[in-house]
Specification:
Structural class: alpha/beta
Shape: globular
Number of strands: 30
Distance between the termini: 48 Å
Number of helices: 11
């Protein structure tokens, strides 16, 4: 039996899970209620090498290093990581994936998987994928519809041609529906014809490309050109920008699936959630006797039906009901637990006000490791830097800032000007503005140091690279050490 090619889509901002989810670290990279992030859990579900090829990932170029690092840390075998020059929604991402699969695997069956979903019954998920594979073998395009358990307003819906309750047979598709209001959602569920839309599709690469051509003539050629003109960059495949940007912007559901006559939906109960709100996190987390869900260091007294999610520090709540309180290093959210839309509205307003809290967290991942902002004020900035074994920062220079490094643990190989030296725990070095320098960890242990920056401009774009192990010399999306 031919193996299936998993295609994992890593897009979206996860604004309704702010302040934990940020533009630089959206929800698929979070470990919400598990030792693994959502994207790692997605890849692990299709790690059966007898039935699946190593997964293909399609992600935003800004997230490439965190994708690669999380998958590598989990020990997962990866096919390739395709980099989108810009976000164009799911239709464009699936189109280039289909073109890539055709070129590499021929007319193989592919399963498209969002990277940020939770599935409580992985065996039911696999059974549904293998049932959908039989539809794909006959030229059909199958999608998984989740048997609804309540009138949810945060999910899209699929209207089936026939009653689509749990255990029902495969049905044709009438339409895809956007997130409804509560009254409409209740009517959907009562009708018995509607399923939650999980965004999971199973199809042959030929069927996918034919559907794209029918929906938008020339789309297949543009997708093929984006793949043909791609350039390999270390662990990544950079899609050709001009060809990719010629692809229409829109969702695969609405742009393609609504127009096909070979689309089918399979009802399945697999304890699915897109974890799209703090209310969803509350529902899937363990509860105490008062129906409170607590993640992190929190104490709740005389309170019920609350979510306390603490990433940093300690939280105490008393005399409240139905709240979601989320604490990170730099932000605190207090909201009605069920007010998913209002959280997204808060993020929208913060973005209009150019608040960095929507963009990055204090923990920032880079190909060599990560850094965490500790403090910042007028003329100074303090970071804690961790360099993984074998990690190397670029040979660089700053115009406006000087840096003072103090090694906390490990051994630092430092280039300063023309001199190279080793620094050990409790040793330090000063790098003046304008001096070429590099930091490297050549040991088998992680390197940790404190960096104190001083100067009149301390933003990440004050950097000139002369040499870089990770190919970032002309890379504006990864400005940093």
């Amino acid at each position: 039996m031919s193996r299936i090619v998993p295609v994992v889509l890593s897009g979206g901002a996860g604004a309704r899970l702010w302040p934990l989810s940020r533009q630089a670290r959206p929800k698929q990279f979070l470990k919400l209620m598990s030792p693994d992030s959502l994207i790692v859990s997605t890849a692990q579900r299709v790690a059966d090498t007898d039935r699946f090829h190593p997964p293909l990932f399609v992600c935003n170029v800004e997230h490439r290093f965190i994708v690669a690092e999380q998958l590598k840390a989990a020990g997962l075998d990866v096919g390739d990581i395709l980099l989108e020059p810009e976000a164009c929604n799911t239709a464009a991402a699936i189109a280039v994936a289909a073109a890539y699969v055709r070129d590499r695997y021929g007319d193989a069956t592919m399963v498209v998987l969002p990277s940020d979903h939770l599935i409580g019954k992985p065996s039911a998920f696999l059974d549904a994928i293998f049932a959908a594979e039989r539809i794909a073998a006959s030229g059909g395009i199958a999608t998984l519809g989740i048997t609804p358990t309540s009138p949810e307003t945060g999910y899209g819906y699929i209207e089936a041609e026939e009653t689509a309750g749990s255990g029902a047979s495969t049905s044709g598709i009438r339409r895809f529906c956007e997130k409804p209001d509560r009254e409409t959602a209740a009517a959907f569920v009562a009708s018995g014809r509607y399923l939650w839309n999980a965004g999971i599709f199973v199809m042959r690469s030929s069927a996918a490309l034919a559907a794209f051509d029918a929906a938008s003539p020339g789309m297949t050629e543009a997708a093929a050109a984006a793949v043909d003109g791609a350039v390999r960059d270390m662990d990544f495949v950079r899609l050709a920008p001009a060809a990719y940007q010629a692809l229409p912007v829109g969702s695969f559901d609405k742009l393609v699936m609504e127009g096909v006559d070979n689309g089918f939906v399979l009802p399945v109960d697999m304890e699915w959630s897109d974890i799209g709100s703090w209310d969803a996190v509350w529902r899937h987390a363990p509860h105490d006797a008062d129906d409170n869900a607590i993640v992190g260091d929190a104490m709740l007294m005389d309170s019920d039906n609350c979510l306390a999610y603490v990433e940093s520090g300690m939280l105490a709540m008393t005399g409240v009901s139905g709240l979601a309180v989320v604490v990170t290093d730099d932000s605190v959210l207090v909201a009605d637990r069920r007010a998913a839309t209002s959280v997204a509205d808060v993020v929208s307003i913060l973005k209009k006000n150019d608040r960095q809290e929507t963009q990055v967290s204090k923990m920032v991942y880079r190909p060599w490791g990560f850094y965490q902002d500790i403090d910042q004020g007028s003329g100074f900035r303090v970071k804690r830097i961790t360099v993984k074994p074998g990690g190397q920062l670029s040979l660089q220079m700053h115009h406006h800032r000087s840096e003072h490094w103090v090694v906390v643990s490990g051994t630092a190989s430092v280039v300063k000007g023309e001199v190279e030296q080793l620094l050990y725990a409790n040793q330090s070095i000063y790098i003046p503005a304008g001096e070429k320098h590099r930091l490297e960890n050549r040991s088998a242990d992680k390197l940790e140091l404190i960096e104190v920056q001083t100067g009149d401009y301390l933003e990440e774009d004050d950097i000139v690279r002369f040499d870089d192990l990770y190919g970032r010399l002309d890379d504006d999306d990864a400005k940093s050490s």
